[in-house]
Structure formats: C-alpha cells, structure tokens
Amino acid sequence: MEKSANFLFGGTNFNKKKFAPDFAKFKNRTEDDDSNKKVSFFEDEAEPEQEKEKVVSSKKRKRKSSKSEPVEGFDVFKSSKKAKTEKENTKNEILENPQKELNRRMERDALSRKQYNIHVSGNNIPPPLKSFAELSSRYGCQGYILRNLAELGFKEPTPIQRQAIPVLLSGRECFACAPTGSGKTIAFICPMLIKLQRPSTDGIRAVILSPVRELAAQTAREGKKLIKGSKFHIRLMTKTLLKTADFSKLRCDVLISTPMRLKRAIKDKKIDLSKVEYLVLDESDKLFEQSLLKQIDWVVKACSNPSIIRSLFSATLPDSVEELARSIMHDAVRVIIGRKNTASETVKQKLVFAGTEEGKLLALRQSFAESLNPPVLIFLQSKERAKELYDELKCENIRVGVIHSDLPPGEREKAVDRFRAGETWVLIATDVIARGMDFKGINFVINYDFPDSASAYIHRIGRSGRAGRSGEAITFYTEEDVPFLRNIANTMTSSGCEVPSWIMSLKKKKWRKHRPRRDSISTLPKAD
Ligand SMILES: Nc1ncnc2c1ncn2[C@@H]1O[C@H](COP(=O)(O)OP(=O)(O)OP(=O)(O)O)[C@@H](O)[C@H]1O
C-alpha cells in the first residue's frame, strides 16, 4: 500500500506544513466570507456548501414565510431556526478545531474506501461518491445524466465509479485499474459529460481512444445511452467519417476512435484537437504496446490544450505502463480497485489438460454435449486456428459464429451483433475481442488455446462474470503449455480459485508471446 494511502488510514500523523494552505481556508473561514463560499477544504466536498446552500434557501424561505402564515403543521421558522443553531454549532466546532474535522472526514473517507476496496495514492484526493445522487448535490450534474443512469438500471456507483468520477471532476489526471466488468466506461464518460456541461460548436472537446474498432463502437453506444435527452454529439470515428467528414463543420463534442484512424485524420490535417479538454485511454496497457505507441504519440501531441485532463483505464496496469503514465501526466491520482492485475472474482476458473489437439476438440465436443450453456465465447491464438475450429463446428447443429482480423469490417460487426442478439450461441474469436467487449450474460469462456500472457488471460475470462454476475472459464492446456501454467496459476489463486499444488510448485516462466506452433485442428479430409 502506498505510504500516502497508509496515511489516509492512519489519520494521526497529519502533516500541518504540507496542508497549511488548506488549513488557512478553515482559519479565516467566516459565514459570509465569499472567498470560502466557492471552495471548501475538500474542493468538491459540498457538505458545508450544501448546508450553506440550504441555509441560503431557508433564508429565502424565511423571507417568503415572514409575509405569509407558516405552513400548516410545519413551522418553517422553527425548523430553520433550530437547524440554523445546529449549523452554527457545527460551524463553530469546525472553526475551533479544523484538525479534528479534517481527521473526521479523512477517517470517513478511508472507511468508505476500505468498504469498496478502493486504494488511492496522490495528493488531495477527493472523497469517494456515496451515491449517484451526489453527482447532483456535490457537482450540480445535469438531470438527464441521473435520469439515464437510473434508466440503465444502475442503482449505485461501482467502486471504480465511486472514486474515479470525483477525481476526474476535481480536474485531476488519473490512472485507474479495476476488474473486468466493473463499470470503467461509465467511470470516464460520466465525469466528462458533467465537466463539458453543455454541447458546443467549438469543435472536439473530448477524445476516447480504444484499441479496437469493436470496443470503440461499443463505447460510443454506451455514451449515447448516457447523453439521451441532451444535445451532445458523440461521434465514432468510422472509415466513412474519416474519409468524408469535414471536421471543421461537424458537430462533435466527444470523439471515440481507434489510434490508427485518429492518427490518420491528424496526419491528413483533417482534424483539430487543440481544444480537447479530456483524453481517455481505455485499455491503456494495450494502447501503450509497441505496435500502437507511435499512434498514441501522435494523438497525445495533437491534444495540445495545456489544461487537458488525461486518464488511463484498464483491468491490467503493468508497472511499466504506470511509469509511462506518470511521465506524461501531471500530479496524477492512482486508483486501484481490489488488487492490481487480478481476474474478476466472479469468474469460476478451471484448467483442463487436453493432451493433444484431437483431445481438445474431443473435450470441447463433450462439454457441448453435456451442457452447452450459451452464450459461449471461445478464444484461439490465431485467426487461422479460429477459422479451422469454425469449419469444424459450423457443420454441427450449434449456432456458431467467428470473428478475427481477416474478416472484412462489415463481417466483424455482423458477427458481434449476431452474438449480442442471440442469433449465434457460440462465438469463436481471436484476442481481437478479448478486451472490453461487454456481452450481456456470457456464461462460459473457453480458452481453447492457452493465452499468451497473464493480462490476456484476465481480459479473456473477463468477458464473463460482468457487472457482478457470475461466470465460468475453462482453459485447455497441452504439454507445450505446461511451463506457462504457473503464470496464470497466480492470477487464478489471487481471484480465489483452487489450483492443484503440483502447478503451484512449478517455476514461473518469463512470459514471452506464448503462441507455440500447434497441430491443425481440422479433422475434415483435406481437399486435394
Ligand atoms: N453502476 C453500475 N451498476 C450496475 N451495472 C453497471 C454499472 N456501471 C456499469 N454497469 C454495467 O456493467 C457492465 C460492465 O461495464 P463496462 O463494460 O464499463 O466494464 P469495464 O470495467 O469497462 O470492463 P472491461 O475491463 O472488460 O472493459 C456493463 O454491462 C454496464 O452496463
């Protein structure tokens, strides 16, 4: 646990020098001092503000009721006088002993973080949200957002939303690691909309980067659900938009894109990102991989607004990416939910020795025969192998689809839509959709081929067990995979799964892209 986070739990070794300016706010705090009206110690903690807000409105109410009779059975005067005295006492208490007040609040926040397994580090971190209602009381968020959150059935914020939203609303940069399926999308879209306040014709003010187009499309869809009832424009950078749009005239508040497409638009000088106030890198560790780094660099440089707020989100955040994040971000807040780089605890995980490729196909057919519990996602290590398995299964009476990067874009989209709509029950895939894709109620993920890294394992199985639902994952392994078992064994045990002791006794092997050459899956007679 970071030292500063320990300090939050301690609450005793409070460093007055370090927080002197904040102390000052309390010292000269007087009831009518306007300079304090806007800013309390906790920038966005509106408790005294709220009380002040209520005091102001009750004063207004008092003015109104001094002319008219008190409301039947409810004497506005008395309650406001009593409430006022109480508030006076609280305020005097705060003035007399800001330290005690400070500690009280910090302990309260530390308890709330402990309850939701929120670990933070950084300076002056705002308290976590207690509820979505606080978005309005603390931040004056527009009504349509609360209505849409309720319409989506979200009763209360998830842990990552509780902490990342206040951090971003307080104008801080942030890198966050939270389990798969824990609501990171809302955690970055919601504060963005609140801070942008209203639609504008000033051009693009927020950018969200996703590593693959399917995830970008999904994020755009989720964002559009949240802006319902407003006049915001959220745009997905499609091939057509890239080719045909005149971005200088296009109404676009939030642009969602893959790095490749956005870099193309920047390079062709078709787009102006100088007014971007928010840049979100979703699945950030994937975006920082060597293959995408150059494109990310183009985007980060094009977003030249000096007061830009950047944030990184992922279920896996290797130390190398953290270091990189710290190097490009300013005074960033680190938010970790649970333990970093662990699989979701809602997914029951199993390892199955399949011996050979024939053994795998047999085991798969057997599990389907016993209990095909769709929807099922099956991951393989390459598009060739995905095609082979698809050819094997498509002749059987299970509705199977396939998605990989060789498919034309339209086909990729159709494969995802058919799976979402339940037209296909089994989707055979490569890692192109291992991250971020949110299919409701995936019961089963099958790693037909062993994942090539611990993070690939976490993201693949994280397609199930989302939003608190339970899920299941089976990972087939053969002799070639045995040396790598230990690497995912830690991920399994840290998310509460049993692993045979012989596997735990294996030596950990340094991960390199583990994609061994495997025998062909196909049992169909080869065409001569
Ligand atoms: N506050 C909430 N309450 C209930 N469900 C929520 C809440 N916020 C988001 N969800 C739902 O949780 C599911 C997962 O959300 P999301 O896709 O944002 O997860 P994620 O953390 O980004 O996952 P991944 O790491 O796989 O990308 C979605 O179906 C979303 O609608």
UniProtKB/TrEMBL annotation:
Q: Where is this region: Disordered?
A: 26-104
The record places the motif (Q motif) at: 134-162
Q: Which UniProt keywords apply?
A: ATP-binding, Helicase, Hydrolase, Nucleotide-binding, RNA-binding
Domain annotation DEAD-box RNA helicase Q: ranges: 134-162
Q: Provide an example Pfam family for this protein.
A: Helicase_C
> Locate the Helicase C-terminal domain: which residues?
363-507
Top-level enzyme category: hydrolase
Q: What is its EC number?
A: 3.6.4.13
Q: Where is the composition biased (Basic and acidic residues)?
A: 26-41, 83-104
Which chemical reaction does it catalyze?
ATP + H2O = ADP + phosphate + H(+)
What InterPro entries does UniProt report for this protein, alphabetically? DDX52/Rok1_DEADc, DEAD/DEAH_box_helicase_dom, DEAD_box_RNA_helicase, Helicase_ATP-bd, Helicase_C-like, P-loop_NTPase, RNA_helicase_DEAD_Q_motif
Protein origin, superkingdom: Eukaryota
The UniProt entry, under SMART domains, shows: DEXDc, HELICc
Question: Helicase ATP-binding domain: which residues?
Answer: 165-335
CDD domains referenced in this protein's UniProt entry, alphabetically: DEADc_DDX52, SF2_C_DEAD
Q: Which SUPFAM superfamilies match?
A: P-loop containing nucleoside triphosphate hydrolases
GO molecular function terms attached to this record: ATP binding; hydrolase activity; RNA binding; RNA helicase activity
Is Cytoplasm included in the keywords of this UniProt record? no
Similarity comment text for this entry:
Belongs to the DEAD box helicase family. DDX52/ROK1 subfamily.
Recorded protein name is RNA helicase
